[in-house]
Every structure is written in C-alpha cells, then in structure tokens.
Amino acid sequence: MTLGRNTAAALRRYLAPQVSPLSSSTSSVFITVIAGLSAAVLLGQLYRWGWPPWPDAAVFIGLVCAGTAAIAWWMQQRILMRHETHVRRLITRVSTLADGQAAAPLPLLDRDLRALAAAVEQAFAQQATRHEQLVRQHRELQMQLRLADAQRQHAQCTLNAVHDAVLVTDVFNQLTLANDAALQALDLPPDLEPNQPIDQVIDDRRLVDLIKETRETGDTAMRRCVEHRRGEGPDARIFDVSLACVASDECGPQEPDAVVTILRDVTREKEVAELKSDFVSSVSHELRTPLSSIKAYVEMLMDGEARDEQTQCEFYNIIQGEANRLGRLIDNILNISQIESGLVKVHRRHVSLAGLISEVIDVMQPQATAKQVTLRFDSPGAYVQVFADKDMIYQAVLNLVGNAIKYCSPGDEVTVAIEANKAAKTAEISVTDTGVGIGAADLPRIFDKFYRVDDHKKMAKGTGLGLSLVKQIIETVHHGKIEVDSRVGLGSTFTCVLPMAEDE
Amino acid sequence: MTTGKPLILVVDDETHILHVVSLKLTNAGYDVVTAEDGEEGLELATTHQPDLIITDLQMPLMTGLEMCEKLKDREPTADTPVIMLTARGASISQQQLGRTSIASVIGKPFSPREILLRVQELLNQPQTVEQADD
Q1: Which ranges of A303-343 would DSSP assign to H, the alpha helix?
Q2: ipTM for this model
Q3: Which pTM value belongs to this model?
C-alpha cells in the first residue's frame, strides 16, 4: 500500500503546520492584544464616569486587562488544541487506511475537517477497490498462464509419446519444436536450444531441402509424402516423410506460418517386405524344381526313353519321390503360414510317440537308404504318451529327421529316441545325427525363418523353413521346448521337450 | 572328342535334372559329361572342351551366369555355345547375355524334347541368341 503511505505522508506534511504546539499564529496574538486593549478602554471609560478611585483604579484596570487577556489566550489554546487533536485523529485515520484497516471505527471530527476526511476516505476506498480488481486480474492471469503452461507441457508430453518423429519449423526455417523421437532419429542433442536455423542443426541435406521447399510452396491444402533414407549400410534407416504447411488462425489461410514434418521409420517394414519377396522367390524356385523333375521324367517315359523295365521302375520311383517332396514342401509352407497367423486349428488327443515315430521312420527310410545313411529308432518299445496334435508332431519329427538325413554323408547315422521324464512330467524326442554339424555362430539363428547356414547351402537344398516350423509347433502351439546341441564335423542332436499326457 | 560324337557338358546341382538330361542326350547319340556345381563345370569344360554346355542358373556358391562369364574369358571355352536353364521368372538381361556365349535360355519346368531340339540346332547350325518362353 505504498500509495496509501505516500498519501498519508503528504497529508501529514500539509497538516503539520496546524499542529505545532503553542500556536505561533499571528491571529491568536492579535486577538489576545485586542481583548486586553478593549478591556483597558472600557475600564478607562468607567473611570471617566467616576467609578473606581485612582490609584486603585490603575491596579484594578491592570488586573482586569491581564485577566481578560489570559482568558482570551486560554480559550484560543483550547480551540487550537482541539483542532490539533482532530488533525491528529485525521492523520491517524489516514495511517490506518494506509495500513489497509478500513474497518476501524471512524473518528469524530470538526466540520471543516470532515470534508477533508470524507475526501480521504473516498480516495482510499477507490484505491482499495482498484487494488482488489488488480489483484483479481493478476490471479486470473496467473491461472491462465499456469493453464497455458500445463497445456503446453501436456502437448509436449503427448508429442514425446508419439513414436514418429515430429518437427515443427517456422517461416524462417528455424526449428521451433522437436519431439523425443525426432531428436533420436536425427541425432540431435537432448538439450537443443529452440529457434535455431535447420541448416545448422540438421545434418541431413535432403531433409532440410524438403522442408524449405515445402515452406516455399506455402500450400496448406496439400501434404507431401516422400521416402527418405538416412545413413548407409546396415545402419541405414528408411523413413516415410510427410510434410505439410500449417497456418494458425491469426495469419489466415493465405499465410502459413509453420511446416510440420513427420518421419515414420519404415525400415522394419521394408525389411519384412523384402524378406517376404525373397521368400516368394525362394518358394517359387523350390516348387519348380521337383515339378521340373516330374514333368521331365513323365515326358521321357512318354517318349520311350526308358528303354528297359529297370529304368522305367527307376523313373516311376523318382516321379513319386518328387511328387512327395513337392507335397511336403507345400505342407510346410502352408503350416508355417497358418501357425504364424494364428489360424491353425489344433486337434489335441492322446498320441503314442512310439507309433508316430515308427511312421516317420518308415516314410523317410527310402531317402536315408538312397544316401546310404543309417536311420533307426532307438526305443520302439517305450510307452510314452503326449496330449497333442498328432499331425503337427508328426510334421515336426519328419522335418527333424529329414534335416538329419539331408546333412549326413554316406556312412553316417541318424538315431531317433524317446524318453519320459517322470519328475518333470515331460516327454523328450531326440533326433541325433553324425553329419556335418552346425557352427556356434549359426546355432542361435537356425530356427529363424528362411535362415540357412552358408556352408550347408552347397550340401542340400532347403527353404530355411523346416526348423522354423518345428519350433512353432513344439513351442508356440504345444508349449514345449526345442533344444539343439551340435559340433561341426561331429553332428547334431535336436531335442523336443513336450508336456506328458496326464494319466487318466 | 575321342568317339567322334559331339560332347556335351551338363551342369546342375539337382541330380534328377542331370540324370534326365544326360539320358536324353545319350539316347540321342551324344557323349555326355556331368558336373554338379560351377567350379566342377569350369574344370571339366577346360579339360574336356565340350562342343556344347548345358547349365542351370541357380546354383549355390557360383551361379550359372558367373560360370558362363568365366568361360567366356578363357581361351578354349570362349566360343562354346551354352544353353541356360532357369526357374527364375525374369529372363536374363541382354547386357548380361552379351558377356557370355549363352545361345539359348530355357525355363524350368523344361521339356527334355525341347532341350534335344535346341542342342541339335546349335550343333548343326551357327549360333543364334534366342530366349525360350516356356
């Protein structure tokens, strides 16, 4: 309340001369003297009329004059002191108002001071009202400021939660906003100062040019979408970049004041698309190969090129074998697609593993014999049951045995065994071969789709799907586990662990 | 060319294809020697100097195309005509063909009859470059 205090000080200065003790005012002295003289004149006149005898008269006149003067003086002082008190009261009141305590009781004042007091009260009341208004406005503005700040933070948080990189640049191509994803994607420091020119901040020439071009078009109706590559080699990332001019309401639609750039990382999508495309090429090639054989041999038979019965028999066998191979390949592909997309119907029932494995051995025996590989079942008498989809487990074991034979050389052995682990309530199927084995570097990846060990590509054909399918069947569908142990040059053992069927 | 019959080298990593093509050509009166990959093919081409080479495109380690380019660079095999078998959808570009002695491209699945026809054409007539749409 500095205003109040200033007013109080000003008033005090104005009123102070009226409060000095023992008034030096000339008027009061003047009045006192006049009173004395008037008394002297009156008494002189009385003496002339013969009333008090001289020299007593002199004393008498003197006393009366002095008395009159004294009374006049005393009355003056009383009036003055009363005035002084009222002025002090006014000053106190002003000080009270200055301290903001308008509720204190109003003092009693003389009429001439009352006008002044009223004016002072009013002035202070107005000040108080004005002050209250200002305080209220201040509070409102503060709240709005806080609200705006909160909204801004909320917007920033929202943007930071967005996975895509968002950049906002202004008409001068300065970077006004970048969310966390943008800082990361463009290798910008986290404590980046805002409003810096993008030339200096973004090290990506093409991106900077794109933003500048977009701003120059000034077209708020259109959004540009381009593909953009950052970096080289295996660390390169590919982005779908979308740029648009935006205008806030104040500027009007004719004058855009910002460019919003969004970068969406599509590197993974592209990779997947490429993998799929490679897969399709690969599959197409794989399917055509057995088909070629079938067609070729059929034509040979038709043209009579198989000149003796033995050759003819051989041809029929080859045709059948290749047809089967084609069938297996198609099955593998279908199965894996279905399992991956979650569309497969699982028909679980009690399956005797011994019976299933015997079937697999029977089917794969010709292939093993053709390669001069020994294929045997170690525990045909074991009674182990699992609650599973028979066709799927069959397919898994078939793939494992097929692989084992594929990567064996003449003279090698493939052994299948089953074992029940009563304590863990699991059944284990193991397929062991004495073939080429798998290197430590390749081991973690062999279950990946399409993955093929480079050294093995020469040895046997394959899509790289077989093991992937086995893993899906054993782990995803049946909640089991597949493990592999292998040494290059010595062979491999694949073990499938499945939950055992509960005894009923 | 010890027997007087034309010698044909067949290169393919698929045993069945090798078997079928060899049999067809042998039955037709040609001498046939086979290889299972590009390396072996190069070796045999250099040592045996066949009159014609039939090769698959898609083979591991060295593709048929790579083998043909290498053959073109070597003296004895530079002009030996080649028939390329391929299961690939897209044909080989003219530019790629230019760097080799590939005289004919046949798609898989192929017909042994057609192979024989082409072989006969190429060995009895001057080389022409053509693509077979199968």
Answers
A1: 309-341
A2: 0.83
A3: 0.53
DSSP calls for B64-129: HHHHHHHHHHSTTTTT--EEEEE--SSPPPHHHHHTS-EEEEEESS--HHHHHHHHHHHHHS----
Tally of CA atoms within 13 A in the half-sphere of B87 that contains its CB? 22
CATH number among 3.20.20.450, 3.30.70.100, 3.30.450.20, 3.30.559.30, domain A162-265: 3.30.450.20
B-chain residues near A461 (CB < 8 A): 13-14
Q: Residue A243: in which H helix or E strand, if any?
A: strand A237-246
Nearest residue of A to residue B57, measured between CA atoms: A285
Element spanning A208, H or E: helix A205-217
Question: With contacts defined as CB-CB under 8 Å, which chain B residues touch A318?
Answer: 16, 19
Over its length of 504 residues, how does chain A's per-residue pLDDT go in tens digits? 455 567 667 766 766 665 554 445 666 677 777 777 887 787 778 777 776 566 676 777 778 788 888 888 888 888 888 888 888 888 888 888 777 766 667 777 777 778 888 888 888 888 889 999 999 999 999 999 999 999 989 988 999 999 999 999 988 889 988 999 999 888 888 888 888 898 888 888 899 998 998 888 877 777 888 888 888 877 788 899 999 988 876 555 566 778 999 999 998 888 888 877 877 877 787 788 888 889 999 999 999 888 899 999 999 998 998 898 888 788 878 887 788 777 888 899 999 999 999 999 999 999 899 889 999 998 878 788 899 999 999 989 999 999 999 999 999 999 999 998 888 889 999 999 999 999 888 888 888 876 778 777 767 766 678 898 899 899 988 999 999 999 998 999 999 999 988 764
Q: Which chain B residue shows the shortest CA-CA distance from A458?
A: B60
Q: Which CATH architecture has domain A345-504?
A: 2-Layer Sandwich (3.30)
User: Helices A267-302 and B15-27 sit at what angle, rounded to 10 degrees?
Assistant: 30
Mutation target to probe the A interface, by most A beta carbons within 10 A, among B10, B13, B16, B58 is B16
Query: Considering the domain B7-131 in this protein, what is its CATH number?
Result: 3.40.50.2300
Helix H or strand E segment including B10 = strand B7-11
Helix (H) or strand (E) holding A130: helix A111-161
